Request: fold
Amino acid sequence: MLNIAIAGSSGRMGRMLLQAVAADPNTRLTGALDLPGSPAIGQDATAAFGRASGVAVTADLRQGLAGADVLIDFTRPEGTLAHLALCEQLGVCAVIGTTGFSPEQKATLAAHAQHIGIVWAPNMSVGVNVMLRLLDMAARSLGDGYDVEVIEAHHKHKIDAPSGTALALGEAVARARGVDLAAQGVFARHGHTGERPHGAIGFATVRGGDIVGEHTVMFAGTGERIEITHKSSSRANYAEGSLRAAHFLAARGPGLYGMADVLGLAA
Reply:
């Protein structure tokens, strides 16, 4: 039995994770964390689903991690790094779906992974991670004669842009082409931009309504266009992918892993 703690348990993703853990006979909820002042503090973590877990939502990180084998965290960079610092002390592994890390924060995350097992992915969806592999194949086969554009759409409450998934898709293309996304990426266009630079990887961002997540990578050539698209209609696929990652960590030592490792897609 794998013991799971969930950070941000009252958020939309947190609620999906609670339901996924409750439905998995091989996992047990041992901790549910939320911000101080949240109305959920002190309540049973799964009461909203008509069932009692016996686990009260808490803002006390040490209490929430007590007895956990793995923390699943889809919060914000500063909170995630604070959680990881205690996870390292307690020997708790972590599945991280948080996006928006700065390069310095990514380095801190990697430092923690020298001591505990961490699966970090900008998107836990199995489908998105298969898409990443397809993009690698497409970019290598098509070469730089095709213009690449990454188009992503999310709900109006998302705070980072482009999405972490969109950046991962762009990085997959750049890696396959042997270039640096920081040098080739075009993240904004306005006014007289001139002709499209050869080899550029463009990004377009849409925010509105309750869009869960849509990503398209377009390879635009002369006389043809290839598009690889993934659309999420529910966050349940992210939760299921997170549980697969948690079970993966149960049999691994310290290290920084991705969903490609979890799914056996790593080259």
User: Anything to note?
Assistant: The mean pLDDT is 94. The two ends are 30 Å apart (CA to CA). The chain has nine helices and twelve strands. Residues 126-142 form the longest helix (17 residues).
